[in-house]
Specification:
102 residues; alpha+beta; Ybab, Chain: A; three-stranded antiparallel beta sheet; 3 strands; 18% strand
């Protein structure tokens, strides 16, 4: 492979990565806790887009449990976003790990 072909491949991969990042910014994932009592939605660029709480999850005398459920749901959503991002970027890079992408 000559240098010109390699540069064309690099430019193509860069364009595919930009497209993948744009797609991920509009891809939504959800994390839940407490059997679905708390649900957090976010995009794969880590913007929280929604929080749903069941009435059962809200007890004014026990805010600590709700706080814990929110942490669990947020962490689950972040994990789902990371997994989705890694899978999408791996498809673009052919499984090659590129530092700083994920």
């Amino acid at each position: 492979m000559n240098q010109n072909q390699m540069m064309q491949q690099v430019k193509k991969m860069q364009a595919e990565m930009v497209k993948a990042q744009e797609d991920l910014a509009s891809t939504s994932v959800t994390g839940t806790a407490g059997g679905g009592a708390v649900e957090v939605s976010m995009t794969c660029d880590y913007r929280v887009t929604g929080v749903k709480l069941s009435k059962e999850a809200v007890d004014p005398d026990d805010t600590e449990t709700l706080e814990d459920l929110l942490v669990v749901a947020m962490n689950a959503a972040v994990g789902a976003a990371q997994e989705t991002s890694a899978r999408r970027m791996s498809a673009v890079t052919g499984g090659m790990h590129i530092p700083g992408l994920m």
